[in-house]
């Protein structure tokens, strides 16, 4: 599914599937043919076909956190992996990334860059801004560019990320959302790790977990 961005120089494609209905995103710059892959948890074939059909070069993979359904296809791409420093262990430890509770323990390739709150990643004239939002996992992040926020499993349409998994913290996720996301403009679009799109304004007004 194509998603409009306020900056016409960039395009975003959403892919949904997998056992948990996770969303993966390709952010790309059509003029330069460079791209970023966000949370490849499933369906490497479909993602690769899109990259190939648009002649896109993958600059890096961005994991919003280290759970299996967001990192499960990291190994399928020859691109550097970026993840927050507090979730680095999740990539290589099946008990952290939850695959240890399945029949197929998963270990992702090692990250090439460990991110921190406030990091800015240049991307063809724009900047991906990293916002550390602990709660769902210790190293959960949100990445913003133009009028878009890739919110991973921190903030959903009318919901928030689960905190009943190991290393989750319900108090921290609420604090992260209130102090770092709801202070942003109403018309900022949120592209979550599961479920439909929303906006900051809609979640401020209607999200039952925040009111």
List the defining traits of the structure above:
single chain; alpha/beta; Metallo-beta-lactamase, Chain A; seven-stranded mixed β-sheet; six-stranded mixed β-sheet; 6 helices
Report on the architecture of this protein.
The chain is an alpha/beta fold and 211 residues long. The chain has one domain (2-206): Metallo-beta-lactamase, Chain A (4-Layer Sandwich). It is built from six helices and 15 strands. The chain has helices at residues 44-53, 68-71, 88-92, 94-97, 170-181, 200-206, and strands at residues 2-3, 11-17, 22-29, 34-38, 57-62, 81-84, 113-115, 120-123, 126-132, 141-145, 148-152, 155-156, 159-160, 189-192, 198-199. The chain has a seven-stranded mixed β-sheet with strand order 1-2-3-4-5-6-7, covered by helices on one side. The radius of gyration is 16 Å and the shape is globular.
